[in-house]
Amino acid sequence: MSVDPLSPSLRVVVIGASGRMGSQACAAVDAAPDLDLVGRYDAGDDLGELHGADVAVEFSVPDASMGNVAHCVELGVHAVVGTTGWNAERLASLESLLAQHDSVGVLIAPNFAIGALLMMSFARQAAPFYESVEIVEMHHPAKVDAPSGTAARTASIIAAARAEAGLGPVPDATQSDPDGARGATVDGIPVHALRLRGRVAHQEVDLGAEGEALTIRHDSFERTSFMPGVLAGVRAVGSHPGLTVGLENYLGLA
């Protein structure tokens, strides 16, 4: 199925419609004059034929997401996915499925906030110039995974930029850390996850060199901040068959 991203009748369903992000996505799609919200699905619902949708927005939970997206692909429905938990094995499985449905596009987006995508882009630019780099991400305590998908994605982007520049490992003389005070390591980049009541989604990349430091920070104070990116993904996914990881690839920020 090929979808014209400018079509005034793009039919959209939301999976995970009653969740924090899903409910916002429903409102955003419903308010968009060029989109038509034709279905809402939650845990336990039979996805069936997805109301004949062109695009599905998927905001469920990690354990359900892969099956939901596979169902969309097999129906020829493009998918815009904000659910986390898409590791390398799951992405490889999805790519194999998409190879059998080569007109279908799937976007896996660790973050839909435009500012967060810019933050990752700026971090990529800065990474070759700094010996030290660490990531601190902060989310609400109801978030089920750590580190966040955005933090993991940022770490991978930074690691690739450092490798291309010929930089070695991030310096760290720590020899004893029995309680994990130094955080997780993603592709060699230290990542620290905070879970605090009152927060939504926040991340900073801290870079250091002799005599100077650079901090790149993005804050989402409300989930409405993600909706312009969700709508951009919905409108563009039909023009990008196959698997795309990161909304930045649609926006020229990769």
Strand order in the sheet with the most strands? 2-1-3-4-5-11
Count of helical stretches: 7
The percent range for strand residues is 25-35%
Largest sheet: 6 strands, parallel
Number of β-strand runs: 11
Low-confidence stretches: none
The rough form would be described as: elongated
**Mean pLDDT across every amino acid position:** 94
Helix percent reads 25-40%
Cα radius of gyration in angstroms: 19 Å
Beginning-to-end CA distance, first to last residue: 26 Å
String of helices and strands: EHEEHEHEHEHEEEEHEH
Structural class: alpha/beta
Short description:
By secondary structure, the protein is an alpha/beta fold. The protein has helices at 20-31, 62-75, 88-98, 114-126, 149-164, 227-236, 248-251; strands at 10-15, 35-41, 55-58, 78-81, 105-108, 132-139, 184-186, 189-195, 201-209, 212-220, 242-245.
